[in-house]
Description:
single chain, 399 residues, seven-stranded antiparallel β-sheet, 19 strands, 18% helix
Amino acid sequence: MTATRFHMTRSALTVHRWQWRISAVTSWTDEAAWVGTRRPMRTATGLDPAAYASDEFYFVEQQRVFGQAWVCVGVADEAVAGRMLVRQVGSKSVLLTRNETGDLRGFVNSCRHRGTELAEADCDIAGTIRCPYHRWGYSLDGALKATPFFNEVPRDDFDKSEFGLLPVRVDTWGVLLFACLSDDTPPLLDWLGDLPDRMAGYHLDTWSTVHQESLDIQANWKLITENFQEYYHLPWVHPELAKVSRVADHYRYQGRGMYCGQTTTPVSGDERDDWLALPEAQGLDASDLVSGRFVAIFPNVILSVLPNHVWMMRLDPLAPGITRETCTMLLPDGVRDGDGDGCRCRCHCTDAPVLGRCEQRRHRHRSAWSARPRSWWRSRGPVGATLRRAAASIPQHAC
């Protein structure tokens, strides 16, 4: 069976022919599963539909992607002294806290005695991480400090220094907090490539949270980030926005690093332009003052950076067809907390029903239709291409 596809170019729409194929992936770790994504852009396909709906793919993805990558786990200003954060990274629960000198620390959320989960959710903490089962106690650097009643039955072969919490790599950049389960993955700054230099003028490490909320979306996490990375859908899903943020004013860019980006210049208001009343960040250059920077950092964080506010979306997969999206609004240094009241992001509320329909399509018909051609959309960099790059750059073994 054949079908017609439309390829958008700058000058015209041209018609091509392509063959539908039956999804028949035998192993997601086989090279054959990725052949279509490795072709040149104009002839390549996106991911196989089962990559959005398959339990098998989800399991491999948790190990090979979220178990190996630098995963965004929050906003940098959440990690403060006296607070312990609990985050899911791939198949593991992770603790993040700061020690007595303010250094960021990360650990596997598991007591070294019987493997008990040390904390279920974010919580305040004094100077000790305490196991709720047998009350073993650990310092904020992870060292084992207390083992109640162990002195009553002394053992010569037990050394507390060998039973500290298992460390997890953690780091920050700008407004973002990251964790990585693999010791073989390059440092965070290598992962980000030239992005910190591109965004240096915003001084994002000085911005602070003014609002945060979470919602569960009935769609695979890749559908959400792909939706953010392409603006082909704007005229139909966001018609009012498209009037002031025209497709022609979107400019894509891709540098070194595991990200893809896009700039809108000039940035404009829409029918609800209350955010324009917010004061701009200090020290922006002429370009940053009139532009919006939209960046997707692989695998799970999306940034919309404007002259006077940042909207961050963290994507945490809960199942193949369910993603928890944590949305955070941040304002630049010196702006009062109340200045952001009433200014909220609405685009993803509009996108959610469309994404849900895409997810249903993949679940119901994943074995009867092909991965779509990439050139159906003008995108900022499809997630399939980034998955391919990740596969090439991240050591391929379980964490």
